[in-house]
Amino acid sequence: MSALSDRIIAFNEGLLPQMLPHKYEAMAENAFRFYRGTCPLFYQDLAGYNKLPKTPVTWICGDLHLENFGSYRGENKLVYFDLNDFDEAILAPAFYEVSRLVTSIFIGFESLKIDAERAGRMAKLFLKTYSATLAKGKAYAIEPRTAKGIVCKFLKAAENSKASRLLEKRTETKKNKVVLSLENERHFKVDKKLRAELIAHLTTWINQSTDSPNSYKVKSCVFRLAGTGSIGVKRYLFLLKSINVRNQYLLIDMKQSMPSALGNYINTKQPEWDNNAQRIITIQQRMQYVTPMLLSTTSFRGDDYVIQELQPVKDSINFKMIRDDYRDLYEVIDEMAMLTASSQLRSGGIQRSATIDELMAFGKADDWQEEVLNYASAYAKKIKTYYKQYLKDYKAGVFDAKEPGE
Question: What Pfam families does UniProt report for this protein, alphabetically (predicted)?
Answer without folding.
Answer: DUF2252
